[in-house]
Amino acid sequence: MAIENSTSLLRRAMAHPSFRVGVIGSAAFLALALVSLVWTPYPTDIVDIPNRFASFSVTHWLGTDYLGRDQFSLLMTGIANSLKVALLAMAIGAMIGVPLGLIAASSKGWLEAVILRFNDFIFAFPALISAIIITTLFGPSAINAMVAIGIFNIPVFARVARGGALSLWTLEYVDAAKLSGLSNAQINVRHIFPNVASLLIVQATIQLSLGVLAEAGLSYIGLGTQPPETSLGLMLKEAQSFFFGFPMQAVIPGLAIVLFVISFNLLGDGLRDTLDPKLSKAGSINVAG
Amino acid sequence: MLLVKVEDLRISFGARQVVNGISLNIDLGQRVGVVGESGSGKSLTALSIIGLLPDAATQTGTVSISVHNSSQYVQVSSANVPDSAINLRGEHIGMVFQEPMTSLNPLMRIGDQIREAIVLHIRAADVDERVAMLIAEVELPASVEKRFPHELSGGQRQRIGLAIALAAEPELLIADEPTSALDMITQRQVIDLIRSVCNKRQMALLFISHDLGAVAALCEKIYVLEKGNLVEEGKAADLLAAPQQLYTKKLIAAAKPIRRREIGRQVGKPLLKVEGISRKFKLPSRLFAPKQYVQALGDISFEIGEAECVGLVGPSGCGKTTLSRIIAGLQISQTGSLDFDGHKYGRTFDSMPKEARRELAMVFQDPFGSFDPRLDMAKSMFEPLNLLPSLNAKEQLERVHQAVERVGLDTDMLGRHPHAFSGGQRQRLAIARALVLRPKLVVLDEPVSALDVSIRGEVLQLLSELRENYGIAYLFVSHDLDVVHAVADRVLVMDKGHIVEQGHVDEVFNNPQAQITKQLLAARLSM
After folding, report:
1. Is the pTM of this model over 0.90?
2. pLDDT of the residue at B34
């Protein structure tokens, strides 16, 4: 399953309809974000009050906001900023969570207990609460929102890594590695991590979409990205004062968030179905006998 | 009278044909066996009779079944049952599946599951009475009716599976590897039960198995399949006495391992001394209740000499795997000590010195689980050399190549990943990996029980050659007495964590003293 070469894996994944939709959607968002780093149709930091609240037109595809800035350009940079926060938050979670999970699975006794209780401790705080604590202590900013979401990601990755690793530790090739005198750390790096990687990749895509959602939430209550920077959540927040006059101001960033989350979730689902041998086996009959 | 007639059955998945024109007949009340190794198409043939082929399969050829309907026999093709009044599955054909753990609904009481089968097929008023009769017929106490599947053992569950299959009084029972998941003693009991039920009910049986012994014990007529082709068919007695085809001969030879006596090697001085090993596991118990333990191993002592092959047999759950893992240093003992070639270990993890690790290797049961699917074979084979850091790259390569050549494989294959090897090749490679360090003792935990019978012989042959040529001692753990008899010098019999009998393999097998040894020997399916 996991060993077949990557081209045939890709072909099989693309045959999965939700994966195909997810890939196209995610790629579109990623492309918008990357392009915005070097070019946007209009600059996003120049105010053009006479032209504010313009509706859709050939010059301003999605109109302009309350300061006359081009909505499409704002959306592009907003996606880029949201994605940046979500990506780094996911990276923080994975970098700390995965090793913790692997160590917990490989060591019995007090170390495992400490890691698991630490996990429960972090899980007990909703992401929003920990974000409020962090921003109270260090002030609101995109970086702090990222750290807050990242901390929330740690136990998620730790649990996934530990769950996958625990079942691998009972396998015979791990016993064989122990007999070869490899230490637990060596076994983790050589055998366990590569075999739980597919689980982690799936989890990463899901945490990425959750991260975008969390960033939007934090920015909306003013704890995330700060003006003059922009993000999807911030656009939503700024639009709400004009919602009854100009509903499109809120609908556009809102729709972007929804599509973004759906795309990454579909991508994650498709990846899981393709990468997880258990699911594909359960769905088919063993024809070998 | 002919009950089932299968003619020129071909089954394919896309372009891949897996059954190539099989024809078979089952008479009324006849017990027919289909023998084949994995991939022979035996299960698919059975599924096509009952009309349960997976959707992806395309079937050609005819499968017709004579169905007793309103006191006359009607010919029915299983592919398209014309008359909806004829309910082929369950009513005329019952089926017992391989895996007793998953074939029952875990949330339903046993009695309800049997009742369901009766209500679906027979409009009878005396349902409760019938449930009780079926439970009695499969020789279980009436109290199981109120129990859940998890409260029963594997053998008991398989009996319930049989009771459900019998509920609608079918003319044909299909049993697909019904005993492969059971231990020797239970297997024998279930086979005896199926035979007596078939006799009593005058019911035809299609028994599918990879185990020629089980088929021979049960069936009057045998079909031998290989890679989707019918190789040979005939009356059981004739076929076993005078097989015509090479493949059948090979199967029969493999099912009766011949004792190989090595004269070249003399058993040397004691290599491994096991003294008073014991191990208890805590059972889950209620809060504040006194702790309860299960004695997995109780005060085990024995020795293995240089170049000696010691067999370790016992029923499942007797502690033989725990013992072999303690010897390999994968688990720890709570009392006693292990002395391997002058190195003491066994009481704490990591107490096994590297010098001892180098000399003691282990081969596992499952050739599919023995190798990391993400590493190519070369990487897996080099892994044990971690214990010999003094070797340079060239010497390491030489070691690996030697080991692979010794098990009769080509070193060019090492770049492939495990999935590209067959089960037999993987088990050879697992043995090769054990040989890379040139050990003095190899612990073999059921090394052939996951292999097809025809490969089994090759692997046993290989093991005895290696012992002959290199003087390796073996601890051969197995539930299969015939295999142990073929390879071991001395045998230890374990039951419930204790060694109940030990001695020379011929003495123990010809004149068993302990009750469990007698039971194990009686359960052998001789041909």
Report:
1. no
2. 92
Taking CB atoms and an 8 Å limit, are A289 and B177 in contact across chains? Answer: yes
Contact criterion met (CB < 8 Å) for A3 and B18: no
**B399: which 2 tokens?**
């070691």
B423 DSSP β-pair partners: none
Residue A287 resides in a domain: no
What is the Cβ-side half-sphere exposure of residue B313, based on CA atoms within 13 angstroms? 32
Cross-chain CB nearest to B330 (options A171, A178, A285): A178
Q: Does A16 touch chain B (CB under 8 A)?
A: no
Chain B nearest C-alpha distance from A103 (Å): 17
**Residue B171 bridge partners (DSSP):** none
Phi, psi (rounded to 5 degrees) for B343: -100, 130
CA distance B46 to chain A (A): 11
Instruction: Please state the domain extents for chain B.
Output: 2-98+170-255, 270-522
For the domain made up of B2-98+170-255, give the CATH fold: Rossmann fold (3.40.50)
Whole-number pLDDT of residue B195: 92
Distance CA B383, CA B434 (A): 10
* ipTM field: 0.76
pLDDT category at B38 given cuts 50, 70, 90 is confident
Provide the pLDDT for residue A283.
35
Yes or no, beta carbons of A3 and B329 under 8 Å apart? no
HSE (CB half, 13 Å, CA atoms) of B300? Answer: 34
Q: Indicate yes or no: CB of A3 within 8 angstroms of CB of B374.
A: yes
- Shared fold status for B2-98+170-255 and B270-522: yes
Per-residue pLDDT reduced to its tens digit, A165-220:
998 998 889 999 988 888 889 999 999 999 898 889 889 998 998 888 888 888 88
Predicted confidence band at B28 (pLDDT cuts at 50, 70, 90)? confident
What is the H or E stretch that residue A7 is in?
helix A6-14
Contact B330 A182 (CB under 8 A): no
> Does A1 fall in a domain?
no
Higher per-residue pLDDT: A273 or A279: A273
Residues 243..262 of B with a Cβ closer than 8 Å to A: which? Answer: none
Residue B258 is classified by DSSP as P
Please say if the pLDDT value at position A1 is more than 70: no
Which CATH number among 3.40.50.150, 3.40.50.300, 3.10.330.20, 3.40.50.720 corresponds to the domain B270-522? Answer: 3.40.50.300
A window 34-73, beta carbon within 8 A of B? none
> Is A232 among the domain residues?
yes
Asked if B328's CB is within 8 angstroms of A2's CB, the reply is no
Cβ atoms of A91 and A211 closer than 8 Å: no
| Long-range contact set of residues A122-125: C-beta below 8 Å, sequence gap at least 24 | A122/A151, A122/A152, A122/A154, A122/A155, A123/A155, A125/A152
Mean pLDDT of B164-185: 86
Q: Are B474 and B307 in contact (CB under 8 A)?
A: no
**Domain count along chain A:** 1
More confident call, B291 vs B245: B245
Domain membership flag for residue A265: yes
